What does this fold into?
Amino acid sequence: MIFNKDTAKKTAEVLLQINAIKLQPNDPFTWASGWKSPIYCDNRIVLSYPLIRNYIRETMAKQIEDLYGKPDVIAGVATGAIGIGALVAEYLNLPFVYVRPEAKKHGRQNQVEGYIEKGQTVVVVEDLISTGKSSLNAVRALKDAEVTVKGMVAIFSYGFNVASKNFDEANIELHTLGNYENLLEQALDTHYITEKQQDILAQWNANPSEWNAN
It folds into this structure.
């Protein structure tokens, strides 16, 4: 869920401004999964824009404090959330770790990189939520390290029903700065898209795996 609608609209505004989010209902992208999609999101671009980077860092940090107080550790999900997670941890003056998709095959064979102790409280930072599977994989790795995951905060979510189901089943609380519904509102308000394109984008979101651009 979004924490604040004004924040969601502002987040949509800045992500569209720097092309971290692109909307192309008439010329869709192809995701790695093979899905055709009228939207592409790469929030790592945020790191290249200091003013927007600082906005995301500070807003996310304040959201974490409002929701959870100060955890013992901030954990970023590799690779997309390593940068913003480290910035949030720095702003809060907290330790930082990041979680790989799987344990390394060599060396210390870590999946969680950085120093963390059993029993510590952790808030996970993510850049983007689609189905939630990779994000929840990171949560499982942290739980295997015997720490307490208080929740997850992400920059943006596509708002898929399957993601809500996956987080509910894992009993993990998710909050995002922005979401798909508010993105479309902002894009329409600023004439980034037309009402017809908004309808196309809404149809995709309702059934992304079956959506056909034609």
